[in-house]
Amino acid sequence: MVIMTTTSSLTFLPVLERIAEEMERTPGRGRAADYIPALAALDPRRFGMAVAELDGTVYGVGEWREPFSTQSVTKVFTLALDLAREGDELWEHVGREPSGNPFNSLVQLEYENGIPRNPFINAGALVVTDRLQTRTGDAAGELLAFLRAESGNTSLDFDQEVAASETAHGDRNAALAHFMASYGNIDNDVPTLLDQYFRQCSITASCADLALATGFLARHGIRADGSRLLTRSQAKQVNAVMLTCGTYDAAGNFAYRVGLPGKSGVGGGIIAVVPGRCTLCVWSPGLDERGNSVAGVAALDLFTTLTGLSVF
Ligand code: DON
């Protein structure tokens, strides 16, 4: 099913329709994340994909209006919100190198003195959320307000069941936060930070919402209302970190196959940016062993192959 919100420009709609047909035919769609029980029941064959153009035109195929758990996709937005506030000082507390390790790994933190490799592994995202919390007093609320404003969807919200499920299974993130606190790299008390982080990850949004909310990265830092969130350089930096670190220890393969800045989440969503042109969001809950959506990566791969659009 295809629903259009505007008729001004639907350049990529035939491409999306072709991708949806291909995905329908593809077997082996991975497995939904089972370490968060609230996500485990999702059918891995579900699929939706949306494109948002620079002027806010948005269209899609499949379940592109269906809300799903955004999870680590939100790490892009908290990074942008914190970078906008504190600028380069952030990079004294979190690096910007690929980790080559799973998203929830602890292994590098000790020999790198509590400074996580990048803002998109869990340790790095915890640092970013902590710093945003210090600056705003409500990091998750700030994020939610941003997503609502950029998507124009005021009904976006936290999913209390998912947040509670993560809190109940949050030992690994708690360990990361306490360990970094022991190096002085966390300002807030750990329970407050974890509460903010789990609520952040629990936000539910659709492909349409997330494609629109990512638009500032294709517009070189300009928000939907025309105001500036990031400098042009900062927008480039966030896109670069997405390209090199946005899909964890599969970032090299993602860059090879898709050739765009992208960020995945274990809810099965992936956002991607074609700077100066458009943004994409794809959702399919079946994950590979690294936590990236199987059909999501395949769909983005096909998109750049069919359109010839990539940053390379
Ligand atoms: O920290 C966690 O475990 C999750 N709330 C977020 C993980 C996630 O989405 C990583 N992604 N692929």
From TrEMBL:
EC numbers, comma separated: 3.5.1.2
Positions contributing to substrate binding: 72, 122, 166, 173, 197, 248, 266
Reactions catalysed according to its record: L-glutamine + H2O = L-glutamate + NH4(+)
Coiled coil segments of this chain: none
An MF annotation (GO) of this entry: glutaminase activity
Keyword terms of this UniProt record: Acetylation, Hydrolase
GO biological process: glutamate biosynthetic process; L-glutamine catabolic process
UniProt cross-references to Gene3D superfamilies, sorted A to Z: DD-peptidase/beta-lactamase superfamily (3.40.710.10)
Top-level taxon of the source organism: Bacteria
Pfam families from the UniProt entry: Glutaminase (PF04960)
Subunit structure of this chain's protein: Homotetramer.
HAMAP family: Glutaminase (MF_00313)
Stated family: Belongs to the glutaminase family.
Protein name, per record: Glutaminase
Protein encoded by which gene: glsA
